[in-house]
């Protein structure tokens, strides 16, 4: 039996009550557990005194399973902290939507099935993101959800290319470059399509474009996408990857996005399909 690491968001799992229950369930079945908080680990009062925590570096290479308790943002931060795809990730939803979670708290007992290896792997593609300035890479990151270029209250001009062929040029609020996993996030809010999460595509979705012809594109993951920031001048614009605080971009900066060699093993416990989850949480919840 390998080590099972529980990664709670203490701002969602108040008092780490669900975390404690998970530890109890797993320990009773003979599994060794550790707790690695995703947020708030250094803030007084967020972690109960009876919970001993570990750091990512202590468990990243020895864990057999990571159980993430929180919302989609908690999953994204865990994926970034681990920076590898060999270990299965199981999400337990305490967020508002929870598209990346396979379990709801009412099904918490199923973590025993996950610990025993009784799950289906859902391998999710990621994208490598680079910011080029004056021909040099000044920033690089890997995203599970998306890379977003956006103005801070300012209208900016952007031009996007696919393998060197221009596909869209417009002034507007920004643009979203998303994976299929990220299609139910900011991309969808910008009018982009919902794509099944195990597909291999890069989605290009303009945000509030000031031209009717600026449509969304669903592209093969084999393409290289580049976006140039134009006419920024004294305006403010940022590149944000998976919802991070972002890095400021300036005129003539170029953002490059391509399929990453990395991927995430976001496991599925079979409690409900992606389509059923989408129907319930997104499309027809209020009917």
Notes on the structure:
The protein has 287 residues and is of the alpha+beta class. 16% of the residues lie in helices and 37% in strands. The protein has six helices and 16 strands. It has helices at residues 17-28, 56-59, 72-82, 111-115, 186-189, 274-283; strands spanning 3-8, 32-35, 63-70, 89-93, 123-133, 136-143, 146-151, 156-162, 165-172, 174-178, 201-207, 217-220, 225-230, 237-241, 247-249, 254-265. The strands form three sheets. Strands 6-5-16-13-8-9 form a six-stranded antiparallel β-sheet. A hairpin with a 5-residue loop joins β14 (237-241) and β15 (247-249). The mean pLDDT is 90.
How would you describe this structure in keywords?
287 residues; alpha+beta; 6-stranded antiparallel sheet; 6 helices; elongated
Topology:
Elements lengths: L2 E6 L8 H12 L3 E4 L20 H4 L3 E8 L1 H11 L6 E5 L17 H5 L7 E11 L2 E8 L2 E6 L4 E7 L2 E8 L1 E5 L7 H4 L11 E7 L9 E4 L4 E6 L6 E5 L5 E3 L4 E12 L8 H10 L4
Parallel strand pairs: 1-2, 1-3, 3-4
Antiparallel strand pairs: 5-6, 5-16, 7-10, 7-14, 8-9, 8-13, 10-11, 11-12, 13-16, 14-15
Question: What's the short story on this structure?
Answer:
The protein is α+β, with helices and mostly antiparallel strands.
Helix content: 10-25%
**Helices and strands, in N-to-C order?**
EHEHEHEHEEEEEEHEEEEEEH
Radius of gyration: 20 Å
Average residue pLDDT: 90
Report strand order across the widest sheet.
Answer: 6-5-16-13-8-9
Q: Name the structural class.
A: alpha+beta
What is the oligomer described by this structure?
single chain
* First-to-last CA distance: 45 Å
Largest sheet: 6 strands, antiparallel
Indicate the proportion of strand residues: 35-45%
